[in-house]
Amino acid sequence: MALRVPGEVSRRQLFGRFRESEPQFRPPWARNAAAFIGNCTRCHACIDACPEKIIVSGSGHFPVMKFGQGHCTFCGACAEACAENCFSTERTPSNGWGLTAAVSSHCIETKGISCRLCEEVCDVAAIRFHPRAGGGATIHFSERCTGCGACLPHCPVSALSMTSAEVHA
Q: Residue 150 belongs to a domain with what CATH number?
């Protein structure tokens, strides 16, 4: 067993960031990646301002959304707290960030086990289930999905994730 010097990073820690499969999304109304990263000083004012505590320090210590702990209410506190030019001045939930929810093959409703917790917590009624012949249902996210992430923490099998809306267009 090798001795570690305090502060030394293990190989697992060093290369772990390359295994990250969860995409990192910027807060709502963030400017394009180049403008956001170029202007962001990583002061974390937006992180501190988020009442839902779902903006966290991500790769490179830039602010990213941590869905699963809560959801975005589109209050705008993150953008208001930013003294730099990182956020768009036009802010509505519909132009928040172009994210939408997506479902994986792990969804138990598609396997014939009644669940639909995600549908119950969706404030904008963007989630619909369509029964399939032989049992189970398919899940569909409508264009009303704001990408707030409210459905994510309620899924008992973590079958939901956030994705760029352009992927589904």
A: 3.30.70.20
Instruction: Give 120-169 pLDDT, tens digit per residue.
Output: 999 999 999 999 888 889 999 998 998 999 999 999 999 999 988 654 33
Q: In 42-169, which ranges are E strands? A: 55-57, 63-65, 99-103, 127-131, 137-141, 160-164
Question: Domain limits at 155?
Answer: 98-169
Q: 79 and 115: one domain?
A: no
Same domain, 162 and 103: yes
> What would the two tokens of residue 31 be?
């400017």
> What's the structural domain count of the chain?
2
Number of neighbouring beta carbons within 10 Å of residue 156: 10
Cβ-count burial 36-66 (b if 16+ within 10 Å, e if not) = beeebeeebbbbebbebebbeebeeebbbbb
Q: What is the DSSP letter of 146?
A: -
Could you tell me the CA-to-CA distances from 101 to 1, 10, 64, 97 in Å, in that order? Answer: 45, 35, 17, 12
- CB contact at 8 A, 24 and 59: yes
pTM for the predicted model, two decimal places: 0.77
